[in-house]
Specification:
This protein has seven helices and nine strands. The protein is of the alpha/beta class and about 280 residues long. Strands 1, 2, 3, 4, 5, 6, 7, 8 and 9 form a nine-stranded mixed β-sheet that branches.
Length: about 280
């Protein structure tokens, strides 16, 4: 009896997975949006690795018919956060030099930019060197010989204009959940973009979203708190408890210039280098 129940459960799960939503990952640029914990980084990493494997299979097949010395190089995965591709391989560090055409990417590679607004915000599209980044995005398919670019941000409006203009579809995510450490579910809706006009794909009349189901990887591919060490550069403050139920002051953004975490990190490195020189 127990065996029959288990078989039924497995059958239902497989049936759900086979009938679940499927991402269309053949566009050159693939973008995910969603709030905190919505699964956008997880999906971005998952799709990036799948696209990398697709490109590596293509190159492997083509190299079978190429002469020695004329073989295509192995496509790489360039990421802005640490990503584990397999037990023995980590992703290549993506730097601003790659995104501003100062250094080349390996042909047919995959590039993943997490929280793209932190590199070039929609509100900084006229910033210095934004035109070079615009060229990188505009001719990405040409320069990488049909590589892929994957990015994400919390809102499609935050995705820098140069990228958003070249998106066919933005995948908006919500309600990411894991089940028994074996598979995950996440709600997805497609936001189609054409000439700055957004159209939300309607398939589910209840909440305008469809459910994507997939298996979880056997090993952790990235750290969901990979930036947590930045917070170590913020000093511990004094803990003050309220003494009464009313207050007169209102929280306001300080008007004087405050040091950023980046400036604190730079200062820490400069002090470290000075100490080495004085020894």
């Amino acid at each position: 009896m127990v065996t029959i129940i288990l078989l039924v459960v497995v059958f239902v799960i497989l049936w759900k997975i086979l009938r679940s939503y499927r991402l269309k990952t053949f566009d050159t640029v693939c973008a995910f949006t969603g709030g905190l914990g919505s699964g956008k980084s997880f999906m971005s990493v998952d799709i990036s690795i799948k696209l990398l494997n697709r490109k590596r299979r293509e190159v492997w097949f083509e190299n079978l018919f190429r002469k020695k010395g004329n073989k295509l190089p192995k496509p790489m995965l360039y990421t802005s956060i640490p990503v584990r591709i397999s037990k023995k391989e980590m992703a290549v560090v993506l730097t601003e030099k790659h995104l501003t055409l100062q250094e080349k990417l390996v042909p047919r590679s995959v590039c993943f930019i997490d929280e793209i607004g932190s590199f070039c915000s929609q509100f900084d599209y006229k910033a210095k060197n934004a035109d070079i980044f615009d060229e990188f995005i505009r001719f990405y398919r040409h320069y990488t010989l049909n590589g892929y670019l994957v990015c994400n941000d919390q809102c499609s409006e935050n995705i820098v204009l140069q990228v958003r203009r070249r998106l066919n579809t933005v995948y908006n995510l919500m309600g990411f959940r894991t089940w028994f450490g074996l598979f995950y579910t996440v709600k997805v809706r497609n936001i189609s973009i054409s000439e700055e006009i957004k159209t939300i794909e309607e398939k589910d009349t209840e909440d305008n979203m469809t459910t994507l189901i997939g298996f979880l990887p056997f090993r952790r591919r990235y750290d969901t708190h990979c930036y947590s060490q930045r917070y170590d550069y913020v000093v511990d403050g004094e803990i003050k408890k309220y003494e009464k139920m009313k207050k007169t002051d209102i929280l306001r953004l300080p008007k004087e210039s405050l040091p950023t975490i980046d400036s604190k990190i730079r200062q820490k490195k400069e002090d470290f280098d000075k100490n080495l020189l004085t020894r």
